[in-house]
Amino acid sequence: MNNNYFFEKTTQGFTDILDDKYVESDDSMFFSIGINQKFDFFDKLNNQHSENIFELIQEITTKEAFYIKAINNLLRQKEYINLMYQFQTKQISSDEFSDELNTNENKYLIKIDQKLSIDNYKVISEIIKKIDFGFSEDDISEVFSIRTQCINQFLIEDKDI
Amino acid sequence: MKEVHENSSIECISATIISRKIVPSAFIEILNIGRCFTYKCSRNSEAVIVKELSPKKPKFNELSNLNKADKLECDNLFVAVNKNKPYSPDLINHSGRHKAQTFTTKEYTMARITRQIFNIPALSTPKQIKVIKK
Question: Is there a domain that residue A67 lies in?
C-alpha cells in the first residue's frame, strides 16, 4: 500500500508528536506529518490551512529559484555591459572582446531556455509587482531566462488566467 | 512591406537599424538562432532588410517578414544579431531636427517590434510569435 503523506498544522509542542514526525516553520509554528490518515486533534480551520501547505512550500521554492536565476542573469548582463563599455571606449579591441566572450562564456551568456507554465507565470507576476520597474517582455525574458513567445502567449491569454 | 504593430518581425542576413537611441542589451542564446548580441532601440526606431536570407526560410518566427526592403517602423525595437563581434552605432542626421544612431548588420539578424508608435491603434487580435519547432 502506498503511503500518502500530508502536513497538519498544530500549536502543540514537540513532545506531543513523535520525534521523527515534525517540521518547524520559520515563525515557530509546528506541523506534523501524517501517513494515510489525519490526526484528530486539529480543528477545521487548521485543516483548511494545512491542505495548502504543499502548494505554499512549492511556491516559496519556485520563487527562490527565480530570484537566484534573476540575480545570476543580471550579474551576467552587468559583466557584458562592462565589457561592451571597454570595447566602445576603445580600451580593448574587437578581437580581445571576442576572445573574452569565448573564453569566459558562462560569465556573460544568458540562456533563454525556460518554458513558462501557468504556475510560474503567476510567481513571476508576483515578483515583478514588487519591483518598481516597467518590465518589457524582453526584460522578463532576459532576467528570468523565459522564452519570449511564452510570455507573449501568456500576456495575450492573461485575462483567462 | 511595412509593419508597424507589436510582435511584427523581420529576419535577414543584413539589415539597417536606425533609432534615436540604440543600447547594447545582453549576450544571449536564443532557441533556433544561437548566441546573439542584442540591442534595444527606443524612440522612432526602424529596421530595413538589406539582404534576404538564403534559403529564404525564417529561423525563429514563422510569421517573420523576409523580403528585401521589408521594414519595421516603431517606437521600441529588439534586435538580435548572430555575430562574434559587436557593432558600434554611428551617428547620423536622420531628420531635419533630430540625430539618430545607425548600424548595418552583415550576419543573421532578427528584429522585432516591442512597442508600436503610440498613435497607431492596436490590432484587435494582437500579432503572435510562432516559433519554428525543430
Answer: yes
